[in-house]
Amino acid sequence: MPLAELDVGLTDTERAIRETAHRFAADVMRPAGVALDKLSPEGVIAKDSPLWEVIRQHRALGLSAAETGDGDLSPIEQARMRYIVSEELGWGDAGLAIVFGVAGFPRMMAELSDNAELKDIVKDHLTGCWAITEPDHGSDGVDILGHAKAPGKDYGKPNVIARRQGDDFVISGQKSSWVSCGTIAEAAALFCAVDTGNDKPGRAVFVLPLNLPGVSRGKPLDKIGQRPLNQGEIFFDDVRIPRSWMVVPPEGYDVAASMVLTTANTGMGTLFAALARAALELAIDYAKERKQGGVPIIEHQTVRWRLSEMFRKTEAARSLNRDVVRSNALNQPRLEYAIASKVTSTQTAFEVASEALQIFGGNGTSREYPIEKIFRDARSSMIEDGCNYVLGIMGGSRL
Ligand SMILES: Cc1cc2nc3c(=O)[nH]c(=O)nc-3n(C[C@H](O)[C@H](O)[C@H](O)COP(=O)(O)OP(=O)(O)OC[C@H]3O[C@@H](n4cnc5c(N)ncnc54)[C@H](O)[C@@H]3O)c2cc1C
Predict the structure, then answer these.
(1) 292 CA to middle of ligand 1, Å?
(2) For residue 6, what pLDDT is reported?
(3) Is residue 178 within 6 Å of ligand 1 at its C-beta?
(4) Average pLDDT for residues 325-345, to the nearest whole number?
(5) Which CATH number fits the domain 255-397, given the four candidates 1.20.140.10, 3.10.105.10, 2.40.50.140, 3.30.2010.10?
(6) How would you label 84-119 residue by residue, b for 16+ Cβ within 10 Å and e otherwise?
(7) DSSP-derived secondary structure letter, 220
(8) In CA terms, which of 127, 257, 347, 358 is 20 to 30 Å from 302?
(9) Ligand 1 atom with the shortest distance to the CA of 137
């Protein structure tokens, strides 16, 4: 049973786009997500994998363009479009929705530069990535201002560094196996340490295609949840790029990285409130079908109460997220609100998916039923884009 729409002001265009996104999510993403979940990590990205057709169809429908707006929309209309589309994609399959999301990262970061050639290089790829996490720096990388650092300590040596050589930068090192789309991305938004030769080493953002000499990839990662989402290391062996591909210099890094994390955490807030909705809807349907004690289990009072709790949490996460998306568009975006939404939605997704699994009883644990996958997908989200505890320290430090 689909949940009602609390937003009473949807326009005809918004309604039509939501319908298109929902049909794609239901007819294409859901079945493909289930099929991909059962494949090996290598199978997910094999030539004959359903992944590629899903990516192509998403592109053909123009849903990314709808989310980012075509220039004719006001900031608030664009914000509404973003959650209208993303909620459906997150409902369809969280891992695939993230494949679509990270594809836009290199292009989004290239927009910060005035380098037309670079924008052109990354404008038309199907896959991309946000490469920030390093083998020795997971939470450290997310903790942009060092709010979670132990007193008197620093974060130690980076695993990737870009060194200035004349008019170029030369990049060496390794990003971690947790980079989403790391082994298939055509381009990267690379957040890493930089030595410009002038100041003390800092951090910067580069945008680069990943077919350059010296770039290689790791093995696709095998993991518990969001298995349709490819992940793996990217290695840089003296990769030479022009200086102008540094799109954010060290002096702009903290602000830019905080903005990117604000955008990413807000997006996670949308996707995982939607995943909670998916789990809730499946649980309601099952509770109406499954008979125990002589009646459909929804007729037992405690089952109804449990569904009501799941519903309350899901709608609260969805409302907070919509407010944050709209506020980001109109006000100075604030990371603490994005973190509040990300943590609320992912925690809600986990709790609702877990309770949904319980409502399915033994069937909830079977791979014949859809709920155990959703539960695994939700579990990963509490670590993805920053472990919720570390994000909490960062959010609290900003209050
Ligand atoms: C599904 C998924 C998708 C991801 N996608 C991407 C991506 O696209 N690009 C990318 O670059 N990365 C990505 N990541 C990586 C993700 O950002 C990191 O996993 C996350 O930041 C945590 O880092 P870590 O795994 O190294 O854990 P660690 O940092 O090693 O943390 C381990 C534990 O220690 C705790 N901890 C660590 N530091 C502190 C501290 N200072 N204070 C208190 N507690 C602390 C944490 O809370 C956690 O419980 C993804 C991860 C997942 C799971």
Answers:
(1) 42
(2) 78
(3) yes
(4) 95
(5) 1.20.140.10
(6) bbbbbbbbbbbbbbbbbbbbbbbbbbbebbebeebb
(7) P
(8) 347
(9) 26
Whole-number pLDDT of residue 72? 81
By three-state DSSP, how is residue 266 classified?
helix
| CA dist 273 → 229, 237, 277 (Å) | 18, 40, 6
Is there an atom of ligand 1 within 6 Å of 142 CB?
yes
The token duo for 87 is 């909620």
Hey, whose CA ends up nearest to atom 27 of ligand 1? 138
Query: Is the confidence at residue 100, as pLDDT, over 90?
Result: yes
Whether 88 lines ligand 1, by a CB cut-off of 6 Å, is: no
pLDDT at position 15 is 93
Nearest residue by C-alpha to atom 49 in ligand 1:
387
CATH number at 126-252: 2.40.110.10
- When pLDDT is averaged across residues 124-137 and rounded to a whole number, the result is 95
Q: Is 272 in the pocket of ligand 1 (CB under 6 A)?
A: no
The predicted pLDDT at position 70 comes to: 60
Single out the residue of 106, 237, 245 nearest to residue 174, CA to CA.
237
CA 183 to CA 186: how far, in whole Å?
Answer: 9
- So what's the pLDDT on residue 64? 80
Task: Give 293: exposed, middle or buried? Use CB within 10 Å, 0-12, 13-18, 19+.
Answer: exposed
Q: Is residue 68's pLDDT more than 80?
A: no
Indicate whether residue 131 lines ligand 1 (CB < 6 A): yes
DSSP-derived pairing of the beta strands 215-217 and 234-242: antiparallel
User: Which 8-state DSSP code applies to residue 62?
Assistant: T
312 pLDDT above the threshold of 80: yes
Mutate-to-test residue for ligand 1 from 130, 134, 139, 236, highest number of ligand atoms within 8 A of CB: 139
pLDDT-derived band at 71, boundaries 50, 70, 90 = low
| Beta carbons within 8 Å of 316's beta carbon, 6+ residues apart | 344, 348
Average pLDDT over residues 170-174: 98
For strand 295-296 and strand 291-292, is the pairing parallel, antiparallel, or unpaired? antiparallel
- In the three-class reduction of DSSP (H, G, I as helix; E, B as strand; rest coil), residue 145 is classed as coil
